[in-house]
Amino acid sequence: MAARLSQALRASGSVQATTEVPVQISFGGWAPDQPSLGNPGTIEATNVIPGEGQGMFEPARDLSKVSTNAVDAAPTGGIVLRDSGNNIFPYAGTPTKLYELLGNAWVDESKVGGYNTGAEDAWEFTEWDPDQLVIASNFADPIQSMLVGTGASNDFADLITSTNKPKSKHLDVVRDFLVLGHTDDTSDGVKPSRVWWSAIGNPTDFDPDATTQADYSDLANGGWVQRVVGGAEYGVIFQEGLIRRMEYVGTPVIFDLPAADRKRGTPIPGSVISFGRNIYYISEEGFFVFNGSSSEPIGNLRVDTEFWRIFDLADKFKVSTQISLVHKLICWGFPASSATPNTIFCYKWDTGQWSRIRDIEFDILLNGSNQGFTLDGLDAVSTNIDTLTPSLDSDVWKGGKRYEGAFTTDHFLASFDGDTLQALLQTAEKQLTPGRSSLVASVRPMVEISRNAPVGSGSENGAAMQVGISSRDRLDVQPVNEAPVTVNVTGEANIDSEARYQRFTLTIPAGTQWEHAMGMIAYKSAMGRYDGYSVA
Q1: d(CA 379, CA 375)
Q2: Residue range 208-225, pLDDT digits in tens
Q3: CA-CA-CA-CA dihedral for 43, 49, 51, 57, to nearest 10
Q4: Are strands 77-82 and 64-70 parallel, antiparallel or unpaired?
Q5: pLDDT, average across residues 495-520
Q6: Among 159, 107, 189, 163, which Cα is nearest to 413's?
Q7: Helix, strand, or coil (residue 166)
Q8: 431 C-beta neighbours (distance < 10 Å), count
Q9: What pLDDT is attached to residue 243?
Q10: Contact indicator for 236, 245 with CB cutoff of 8 Å
Q11: CB 57 within 8 A of CB 45
């Protein structure tokens, strides 16, 4: 309404504007669960990640392929490990094969005959550090292992050599034991609530024995085991409706399994990810962090409702997670209104802020590290350095560097190191002048362009950014969206919009080299009440 009404009223002399004043509107953290009016953060924060300061955002980037070949199908799990020489070796499992990345090419390291992963199962990986074994389990087949970095001369093989050879959906290393959860064995069959641990110091032996300390425990309540999270001091067992600590007490009990959180567990096994002493997960309530003794909400009043609004629990087997150490992010990838994962929720653990990435389809997220390229090796990716993607400055090409990765839908390993995605930020709805409507004449986005952008390249300036405005005079009607206006050479978008309530949308085109988005400055005038016509 806004522009046409304000223009008509001012032309008729019914309304007069007061002095124009600038109003700074910060973005704040993404909080789609809050009402639009008075929202303490942003209504929308898409294709951005939380920045280093409160209320700031940084660009999210597109995927850029790293591996020189693809695996045979969509991976269901993966891990990145180092050998004794500190060399990096990623591993990945598809429904029928296990792979190792050698020289940035995936090599099939499956045992003869391959594997038969179930449609609702996934590969889980862990490392047995004393022997530098990578261990993998998919529930359908015997647990697999191989020495890290020896794929040039070895393949995966069956790990367990004892009489009892349980299979498992979940596994990790707790103290000096390999621990399995949700098991299947030839004697007792499938035991969804069983936790089974190996002999102390020996992951190949699962025959219960008081001397070796191998044993198992059937959990009486809490539902199916959903995840095993290892640790040097204690383990954590996630069930459907309960979280337990796994505490070593020695013979004859071996492990005590007390409930640490009786109120919640997780329905989504792939949502559980640990960093240090904290374990992040999705419960039926929303997003939580478990600190070893209790759980604290991290998505309440911010993103919990939005997540469950767009996520179908039938897709729980398609959820994957990732940690970005550089950006201090925990990321959850999942499908939203799609059969393919296409959405990532990002949580910055030091500030508590959230954002969303979408418009990218992928198989799974993966914490990635690379082995590095020689100049000759770069030829396998591109023979033209000028067109090399990502650029030669990227950490992707430097051996041993960590990066945030994923598998593309054509099953290549890739990094989030491509061009910036088209970013969309929408402020909370504001009443800029208490008790009155306001006329907004122009808006200046507070976006800092990358200091590394080459001057004159075109992508280093923000002139192509657009500002939109949505306005209304009553909360019980939908806001009217004005056509977006391109930012001019002075850094402003000239808008003529008058209303009681207003919200502002910033669109930063894909490929723009920017670093920080902090908010908007709206230049507004308060409107009065004249000639019996009230706009207040």
Answers
A1: 7
A2: 999 999 999 999 999 999
A3: -50
A4: unpaired
A5: 94
A6: 107
A7: coil
A8: 15
A9: 98
A10: yes
A11: yes
